[in-house]
Specification:
Order of helices and strands: HHEEEHHHHEEHHEHHEE
Number of strands: 8
Strand order of the largest sheet: 1-2-3
Distance between the termini: 94 Å
Strand content: 5-15%
Structural class: alpha+beta
Helix content: 10-25%
Shape: globular
């Protein structure tokens, strides 16, 4: 009877906790434990920027953004650069910026139609999308953000290079975007964009992370060239600004708006948020955004070499943000002579 009671108690204890000897329960695993054959790290979606919990200690200079050229590493060679598309000679009466658009999206622009009566131009994409070049309306800055035509997208030219001034009010080259253009090129919806995603090694000597990016229009290839050039040329003390990445693809709207973030099309990357400054964070301390930046201009220059514009050259600045916008970097569409202008 004692033996039977002992066996009964043993099985009851087994049923209660699942780990008693002879119960067949698995060895408890620590939280976060994974199988040795687990796939490579999955990139988190790029969220709306969130301010780091600790205020960065380095106060950036408020002087114009100039910096000396860094010495070229003696034992390293620069990866070959892919020349940015440049416009062909314009057709009679065609706006210069339209040539920049044609060149940047040559595989996706079917042609341009002109209304014989109104002379309005319409860009026809190869998926049948028709986009008005100029709707003829006088618009404020906010109206151009909310309801732009293609001409509005070029209305604030981009200042290429290291020698630029702190942006004046609403001087935001690249923030005005025609959503229909990006849908026609990179994917009409989240599913279509996902079908165009490929993985890009992001600075593999310093990170195991592979980023997803849109393969259309050479965007993913351009990000790969950025990664290669940064690995070849970036001084060791600057690696921390680029790694880890805060993400690329996330189908979402910009906070407080009905406009899709460019991250929705997987053609933007946020670098290390720890060293980022963002205009909305500044509003917690000031009624207007006071410009701040910690990202080295050596990093900015490499991204620009491959068709990316930088959010640090915006009045509404987002210094960890780079987006693939080759149409804004064609020579004839760049800002001439430097300077900055308030935009009403």
């Amino acid at each position: 009877m004692r033996y039977f009671r002992a066996i009964t108690i043993g099985f009851l204890f087994c049923a209660a906790c699942g780990v008693a000897l002879g119960c067949g329960g698995a060895e408890p695993q620590p939280a976060g434990a994974t199988d040795a054959t687990q796939a490579e790290p999955v990139e988190p979606a790029a969220p709306e920027p969130t301010e780091p919990p600790v205020e960065p200690r380095t106060e950036p200079s408020t002087a114009p953004r100039t910096a000396p050229e860094p010495p070229a590493p003696a034992t390293k060679t620069q990866p070959p650069q892919q020349p940015l598309p440049q416009p062909e000679p314009r057709e009679s009466g065609e706006p210069a910026a339209l040539g920049c658009l044609r060149a940047a999206y040559a595989d996706f622009v079917e042609g341009v139609e002109s209304d014989p009566e109104t002379k309005q131009l319409t860009v026809v994409m190869n998926d049948g999308t028709k986009l008005l070049w100029d709707d003829g309306a006088e618009k404020s800055y906010e109206q151009r953000l909310a309801n732009p035509d293609l001409e509005d997208q070029f209305s604030i030219s981009y200042p290429l290079g290291r020698d630029f001034e702190i942006p004046a009010t609403n001087d935001d080259p690249g923030r005005i975007r025609v959503e229909g253009l990006f849908r026609a090129v990179y994917g009409k919806n989240s599913r279509a964009v996902r079908d165009n995603l490929v993985k890009v090694d992001w600075m593999p000597s310093h990170s195991r992370k592979r980023l997803v990016f849109n393969k259309q229009n050479g965007a993913a290839e351009a990000l790969g060239r950025v990664s290669a050039e940064l690995e070849e040329s970036l001084p060791a003390e600057m690696i921390k600004f680029a790694v880890p990445s805060a993400g690329t693809f996330n189908w979402r709207k910009i906070a407080g708006t009905d406009r899709l973030s460019v991250h929705s099309f997987a053609i933007a990357i946020d670098i290390n948020v720890k060293f980022s400054n963002y205009w909305r964070w500044a509003l917690k301390r000031n009624p207007v955004p006071v410009y701040r930046n910690q990202i080295p201009l050596e990093i900015v220059e490499v991204f620009e070499n491959h068709g990316f514009v930088w959010g640090g050259k915006w009045y509404h600045y987002d210094t960890m943000h780079f987006e693939y916008r080759p149409e804004l970097l064609a020579r004839q569409c760049l800002r001439k002579g430097g300077g900055t202008t308030a935009v009403p």
